[in-house]
């Protein structure tokens, strides 16, 4: 009987999401108020306590559930679904307005930047 091992290593998922978001460990460390080594430890951890997971998720601009449900295969499939149709026939079967998704992403990025500024201002006020 063959068993399938479910990849539920939270640290690896966090690291991969961080990479996909284009955030360096040093930047995430500053956002969390910890050292880069602490972020490295987080990414090596199989599990995280709820409070730490929520802080990391907020810094990455995702929900804790998104981290738990992250799948490398789904991420790869998402990017592979953008096929090059250079044969002249392009069948667009979008069930959503792509512009809405771009606007949604832009708004999330702007909010993440605002959160970073607020966080850094709070750090400066403490000093």
From TrEMBL:
Molecular-function annotations in GO: DNA binding
| Listed SUPFAM superfamilies | lambda repressor-like DNA-binding domains (SSF47413)
Q: Which top-level group of life is the source organism from? A: Bacteria
Domain HTH cro/C1-type, chain residue ranges per copy: 14-67
This chain belongs to the protein called XRE family transcriptional regulator
Q: Which UniProt keywords apply?
A: DNA-binding
Source species of the chain: Euzebyella marina
InterPro entries given in the database record? Cro/C1-type_HTH (IPR001387), Lambda_DNA-bd_dom_sf (IPR010982)
């Amino acid at each position: 009987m063959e068993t399938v091992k479910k990849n539920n290593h939270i640290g690896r998922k966090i690291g991969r999401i961080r990479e996909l978001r284009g955030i360096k460990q040093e930047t995430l460390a500053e956002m969390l108020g910890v050292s880069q080594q602490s972020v490295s430890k987080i990414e090596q951890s199989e599990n995280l306590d709820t409070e730490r997971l929520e802080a990391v998720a907020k810094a990455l601009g995702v929900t804790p559930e998104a981290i738990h449900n992250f799948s490398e295969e789904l991420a790869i499939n998402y990017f592979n679904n953008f096929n090059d149709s250079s044969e002249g026939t392009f069948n667009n079967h979008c069930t959503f307005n792509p512009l809405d998704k771009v606007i949604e992403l832009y708004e999330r990025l702007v909010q993440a930047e605002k959160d970073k500024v607020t966080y850094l201002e709070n750090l400066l006020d403490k000093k």
